[in-house]
Amino acid sequence: MKPLAILAGLLALSLVGCKGDSTNTTGTAGGEQPGKGGASKSIKVALLTPGPVSDSGWNAMAYEGLVAIKNEQGATVQNQEAAGEGQIKDAMRQYAQDGYNLVIGHGFEYNGVAKEIAADFPNTAFVSSSGAQSGPNFGAFRFYLEQGFYLAGMMAAGMSKTGVVAVVGLDVPSIRSTFKGFIAGAKAVRPDIKIVEKYVPLPGTDIAAYKQSTLAAIDEKADFIMHQANQGAQAVFDAAKEKGVLCFGANANQNNNPSGVVIASAVIIAKPAFLDLAKEVAEGKYKGRVQLFGMDKGAIDFVVNPAMADKVPGELMSKIQQARTEIATGKLVVPKDEF
Known about the structure:
six-stranded mixed β-sheet, disordered N terminus, 10 helices, alpha/beta, seven-stranded mixed β-sheet, globular
């Protein structure tokens, strides 16, 4: 089968990823409106993110989910950056005191704080988009991004000329788990592949550290870079462009990044999960639990950059397409950490 024909089959299975290009990082995004989208009443929803929603990645895709809640369910919504335990506690308490029905903390670090705060505000649901703890009015939904990273690992190992690929990201359990998926995919194609791992410590706001880590990985001969850098993603791409290596986008579809180095993206489609959650809260049906959203629910995608499709060998693309089908049907279970 010709590479472009295989690509067409792969893309036909794909959903369109989020671009996350919003620049509105704080303040009320909409007023009270009649309930829509099946919700029984209009509710107030707050989103807390660890970084700016203009990052075209992790935070941006969550903001698009929040906007969907506003537009399709008539909610009053607000978002703000909140990083660090003290700031997160203050923000959660303030929103609950202001009568918000749902507070979403976008990341692993919000789960433990939610457990502490939720007991004081039983009429507010606190949900983090990662984590393993839950109770009557708090929980988590976990995006099985490891599935998309697995396919990226396959592509990286299958195309690497040096036999070395790298991961660069923030040092938190949820990100290490996604890299576990990438490593598994790489070794499935090439068992002897070398994986260079570079981690930036919390809070991860030092953008220069991401570029330095990427350059260090390239110095160790890595010619494909998988990142989990949030607002530091552009620094990763810039380093890759300087050295002439390729990258993968993460969380949102970053294929159109002006650096021209993104060959494919492992994408989270947050909208369905956010809408289902808000609907449950609006109807008074939310029960704290941990939910897993993967390819089987249309929440995870792997999108090849059409402008670079001709770089991918047809045989490798066929293997990726087959693996994607097996992941979506449950035949292939991608490894992930529990945290």
